[in-house]
Amino acid sequence: MQALWMVLASFFFATMAVGIKIAAGSFNTFELVFYRGVVSIIFMGMVMRARGTPLGTPVPMMHAWRSLIGVLSLGSWFYAIAHLPLATAMTLNYMSGVWIAAFIVGGAVLYGHAERQGPLMATVLAGFAGVVMMLRPTLDQNQLFAGLIGLLSGMGAALAYMQVTALGKMGEPEGRTVFYFSVGSAVAGLIGILFTGLTPWSAVSWQAATWLVPIGVLASLGQWCMTRAYSRGSTLLVANLQYSGIVMAAFYSLVLFGDQIPLIGWAGMALIVASGLAATVLRMRTLPNTPAEEH
Question: Which residue has the higher pLDDT, 97 or 47?
Answer without folding.
Answer: 47
